[in-house]
Specification:
Elements lengths: L4 H20 L11 H16 L4 H20 L24 E2 L5 H17 L3 E9 L5 H13 L4 E2 L14 E6 L5 E9 L7 E9 L2
Antiparallel strand pairs: 1-2, 2-6, 3-4, 4-5, 5-6
Helix pairs in contact: 1-4
Length: 211
């Protein structure tokens, strides 16, 4: 099985663009979960107890049923991967534990934004996402690749190495890629030394869906 040629070309172009731009020269935090339903539940229970003090057994039954229904509702929002292991966004993937968001005011953030714009112009109608993170100097490409390989193959994705695809080499880092079973979606990973010589490494995660 092989990675889609079009998506593989986009991946290689992304690596080249990032490397050239970086040598030459943010995902927003998740919104906190709303806690309003919990307070509404408490208010409903208190009101029911005050209005029906004579019917304790019936109230208890109603509370049990309501709680069961509410518990079921609370479980529904949990995000589930779509059929075939496909993702709806990079947010569906766990983030490497030691990865940190790049400072929006840093030169690297500017480079990543420029890379996004260039890829968008070449992407045609394909859906794509690009996110960049900083890594401590103690983290290796093998560490990061192993983490995402476990996360993606556990969903049924196929790694580039398993598909027999040779990835570009990057000094001090590496490139990895995974595709869905139907070859419609690809996730790539790039780890390289920070060309700004901060002593850290840069991790780029790229997701593309074939148009």
């Amino acid at each position: 099985m092989r990675l889609p040629n079009r998506l593989l070309m986009l991946l290689v172009a992304m690596v080249a663009l990032f490397t050239v731009a970086a040598c030459g020269g943010n995902a927003p935090p998740a919104e906190p979960a709303a806690e309003e339903p919990a307070s509404e539940e408490a208010t409903t229970e208190d009101t029911a107890m005050e209005e029906e003090p004579m019917a304790e057994e019936g109230a208890a039954e109603g509370t049990t049923e309501d709680t069961t229904m509410e518990d079921t509702t609370a479980e529904e929002p949990a995000s589930e991967p779509s059929a075939g292991g496909e993702l709806t966004s990079l947010a569906d993937l766990p983030l490497f534990p030691e990865a940190q968001e790049i400072d929006p005011s840093s030169p690297m953030a500017t480079v990543v934004d420029a890379m996004r714009q260039q890829i968008e112009q070449q992407e045609d109608a394909a859906e794509f996402e690009v996110e960049a993170y900083a890594l401590p100097s103690t983290v290796t490409f093998a560490d990061v690749q192993s983490f995402y390989d476990e996360a993606l193959t556990g969903r049924g994705w196929i790694s580039a190495s398993e598909a027999g695809v040779e990835m570009p080499e990057i000094p001090g880092g590496g490139v990895g890629a995974w595709t869905t079973d139907n070859q419609n979606e690809v996730i790539s990973l790039v780890v390289m030394e920070d060309p700004m010589q901060t002593g850290e490494s840069i991790m780029i995660i790229y997701r593309a869906v074939q148009a």
